[in-house]
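Journal club prep, notes for RB
We'll compare a predicted complex against what the paper describes. Inputs for the 5-amino-5-deoxy-1-O-phosphono-D-mannitol case:
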Amino acid sequence: EKGMYPYYMLKEIDEQPAVLRRIVQQYQNSAGELEIPNELKQAVEAADRIHIVACGTSYHAGWLGKHFLEKMAGIPTEVHIASEFSYNPPLIKGNPLFVFISQSGETADSRQVLVKVKEWGYPTLTITNVQGSTLSREANHTLLLHAGPEIAVASTKAYTAQISVLAILAATLSEEKDFALIHELGIVANAMDSIIAEKEQIAELAEAYLTDKRSAFYIGRGLDYYVSMEAALKLKEISYVQTEGFAAGELKHGTIALIEEGTPVIALITQAENASHTRGNIEEVRSRGAHTCVCVMEGLQQESDQLVLPAVHPMLTPLLAVVPTQLLAYYATLQRGFDVDKPRNLAKSVTVE
Ligand code: M6R
C-alpha cells in the first residue's frame, strides 16, 4: 500500500535507507559478520570467472557487481545484456559462474540465457527480490534482495539493494578484512536519509533544469559513469526527456555535437581520482551552452556546485549518488504532468523476449 504517498516510486525511493539496513541484518550471522550460504561460497570460490547477465536497471547494477567482485574478491567478471547474449556469447574457458540479476525474477530475456547456461551445465546464481520466482527456482543458488515489493515501473530500491547484495557477496569472498562493509553501509544509509530529507531542493533542481527540455545528459567517470547510465534510464523512462548517460571523457568524441544552448548536463563527481577530469568536461559543455548541474561528494565540492552528497566510502558512492537522480526523475515527471508509476509502453515485468 502506498499510504500517504502520492506515488509508489516516491515511497520506494524513501524506503531505501531502511532496505539497506534490513539487508545488512539479513546477511549478518550471529557473530555479527556478513555471511552467504556455504554452498554458494564454495561455488563462487570454485569459479575462475563470473558472467553477470541482466536487463535494464539490473544490468546497470551488474557493472557495480563487476567492480566489487574484481576489486574486493579478485574474480574476473564480465557483464552481459541478456537479450544480446546469444548473438555474442562469451568465450568460455575453465570454470565460470553465471549470475543473473533480476528484481522480478521473471524477465524472459534473462531466463532464456539461464536455460541455455543450464543446458551447458554451468553453475548459476540468481540475485532477486522475489523468493520463488522463476529465475530463483531454476538457478542453483539464490540471494534475496529483501527490498519488499517494488510496484513502480521505474526500479529504485531494487537497484540500491542489488548493489548492496553484490557488495556483500564480494566482501564475503574477500581476503582482506580491513574493509568494514557493515559499518560503511550504515554510513550510506544515514547519508541516504539526509538526501531524502532534503528532497524539496531536488524538486527545485528538476524545475530549474528539466521541465521544458527535450533532451538531457548525465556524465561521469568510473563508478559515476555506471550511475550515469542508470540515472539516464530513470529520467527517460518516466519523464520522456531523451537522456543519455555518458562517460564524461567520451563526449568530445562525437556526442558533444548535440549540446545546444540550455541542454541540461548533470555531472556526477564522487571519486577524487577523476574529479578534475570530469570538471574539465563540464567546462567543455558549459562553454558550448550547456546548462550544467554538478552533483558532488562532500570534500570534492566547489562553491558553484548545485548538490553536495554526504561523504561515504569511495567504493559505495553509487548507492548514494543514484538517490538524487531518482528524485530528479520523479519530480521532473510530476512537473511535466505524466504518470510517475505507469509510464507509457512499459510493464513492470517484461515476460516476452
Ligand atoms: O525484473 P528485472 O530486474 O529483471 O527487470 C529488468 C528491467 O526490465 C528493469 O530493470 C527495467 O529496466 C526498469 N523499468 C528500469 O527502471
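Talking point for the session: DSSP finds twelve helices and ten strands in the chain.
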